[in-house]
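Checklist before submission:
- one chain only
- standard amino acids only
- sequence pasted in full

Submission:
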Amino acid sequence: MTLAGTLLCEVRGVGPDLLAAQGGWWYRGEYRLAPDPAGTLLVHQVRLLDGR
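Returned file contents:
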């Protein structure tokens, strides 16, 4: 499988535990690092930006 497109990654001054990747105009993926008893938990959350 071949994927084509553009991925914009930007690090904002929100905190040291957040990386945001925006895919076009309609969604934004946010990756956060959270403490976990086993070490560190990577949490991925997709936010819709189109107003729905």
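Reviewer check: Strands lie at 8-10, 18-23, 27-36, 39-48.
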